[in-house]
Structure formats: structure tokens, C-alpha cells
Amino acid sequence: xxxxxxxxxxxxxxxxxxxxxxxxxxxxxxxxxxxxxxxxxxxxxxxxxxxxxxxxxxxxxxxxxxxxxxxxxxxxxxxxxxxxxxxxxxxxxxxxxxxxxxxxxxxxxxxxxxxxxxxxxxxxxxxxxxxxxxxxxxxxxxxxxxxxxxxxxxxxxxxxxxxxxxxxxxxxxxxxxxxxxxxxxxxxxxxxxxxxxxxxxxxxxxxxxxxxxxxxxxxxxxxxxxxxxxxxx
Length: 233
Known about the structure:
The protein is mainly alpha-helical and 233 residues long. It is 48% helix and 2% strand.
């Protein structure tokens, strides 16, 4: 379903979302490690990871909202997209609170760690929803996508209708189906072959003056012939 804001043929939101997802999830892992090793040197990494991840989220979120507005309603894609966007918004707000609650040049407080851990757990769920939107519901995917498709730089496909399904994984979904003969002569030969091999019903095996069609069959002619007994010449 080609319904995304694109740059060079690819959805902008899908290109940008890797930055906030990577930065913020790394911050989540750093805080998770901090619970195990409070004196670790990685504690100070979140002083840089959190602001960079929040800034990247602010850039990627508007493109996701624009893509969501183009989804047909009612549809499962629109419902999943709404949950995906709302969940990410709450997670980003929690990461922002975690960053603001951190003292300078000191280990993070328990409220800051708790906010970061909850936000990371929410982003794991919203990441699954994002994969569901693309992989299962086909949002941002070309209608004629297949393993031998042309480059996105040369694609000129118009936005399909909401009822049109995608074709992910097919070798060539728009190739014509070869169900019949390729030419008129081949069609005539196939029709002649069908006519020549069609069985004749017993009702047609009748002889004039006989009401029973089976009586027209001479059983003596159907007896096996012994080729060793030849008639005298």
C-alpha cells in the first residue's frame, strides 16, 4: 500500500525512525546496565544519548503522522498506526522526563531510571507495531513489490486504492497468467483434440428398429480372437 511521504522512492518516516529508535533504546540498555553496575563508566553515555534521541524523534514523528493521516478509515492499519504513534509519544515524554530528572555529573536517580525503563519497554511494543504496519499491513510498500522489482528511483506507480492488496514476496505479480493456448491455431488444435477424444454416450449406439441401445452391440464381435487358428485358404 503506497501511502507514505517518500524521498528517492523510500518512505521518509522509515528512514528517519531508525535514529530515535537506536539512540533511545541504547539509552534504555545503558540504564538497565546501570541497575546491575551502578559504578560503571557507561552511566555518563545517557547525557548524550537522550538529547540526541529526543531531537531525532522530534524530526521523525511528523512524517509518521502524515503517513497515518493517509490511511483509509476504518481499517486495521489505521488503528495499529494510532496505537503506534500514541505509544511512541508517551515513551518519548518519559525519556524526556528521565533526562530532566538526571543530575549533572552524577549517577541517575531512581525516578529517572524508572521513567527510562518504562519508556524502553513501551518502545519495544511500538516497534513491533511498526513492523506489523509494514510487514503485515503493507503500509509504505509498493503495490507491485516483488523480488525482481525495478529500482524505486524509476518507479512511477500511482497510489492504489485502499482495497488493493500488496504482493510482497512474489516473483512477478503482474506477469500474465498462462492458462490457455498462446495462438489461435493452438486453440483450434486443442479444441480438435478434445472433440476427437470425447467419449460417445451409449444412447447414440442405436440401430434403426431397436429400442434397446445395448442390443445394437454384437457380443460375438467382442470375443477374443485366437490368432493361432487360421481359417483354411
